[in-house]
Design a protein that fits this description.
Number of helices: 9
Largest sheet: none
Number of strands: 0
Shape: globular
Structural class: mainly alpha
Helix content: 55-70%
Order of helices and strands: HHHHHHHHH
Number of domains: 1
Radius of gyration: 18 Å
Strand content: under 5%
Length: 150
């Protein structure tokens, strides 16, 4: 008698694109460059705060945007190029940290907000303000994913 039980196979989900779609930014390529050049919509900031679980002012501190500037950008509806670039860097590091912890946002947040030996005792969120710092954090995440600790 043939079996009527079907094997369950979940549909492949591109979690990376889902993150970027929820955020409201393309993940890579010419569309990302265009979005950054034209000015990242303010909604990306509010989405990023919600996704990361950070308070608005806390996120602003990590991406080096003053309260007054944040209020002006809310009225204008978009950020300037350099501010949008910092938001993108934060989002990229945050996404990679969540991936490192296999989707566990709580563990990713804990890791991002605490000093890390592989970064000379610095907190990853404090390094995101510069391109060099963000690259160092992404490099460390890559090494941790591959089991390279030195």
């Amino acid at each position: 008698m043939p079996s009527t039980i079907k094997e369950y196979r979940p549909k492949a989900v591109d979690r990376k694109e889902g993150f970027w779609q929820t955020l409201g930014l393309p993940s890579r390529g010419p569309k990302l460059h265009e979005a950054l050049s034209e000015g990242v919509p303010y909604e990306v900031y509010t989405n990023l705060a919600a996704i990361s679980g950070l308070e608005s002012q806390e996120l602003a501190r990590y991406v080096v945007i003053s309260s007054a500037t944040l209020q002006r950008r809310a009225k204008a509806g978009h950020f300037k190029r350099d501010e949008g670039d910092r938001l993108y860097r934060f989002a990229e590091v945050y996404k990679n940290a969540v991936d490192l912890f296999e989707g566990d946002r709580q563990r990713a947040n804990t890791w991002l907000l605490n000093p890390v030996r592989g970064l000379g005792g610095q907190r990853p969120v404090e390094m995101i303000a510069t391109t060099a710092g963000a690259e160092a954090v992404l490099d460390l995440i890559g090494r941790l994913e591959h089991g390279v600790f030195a």
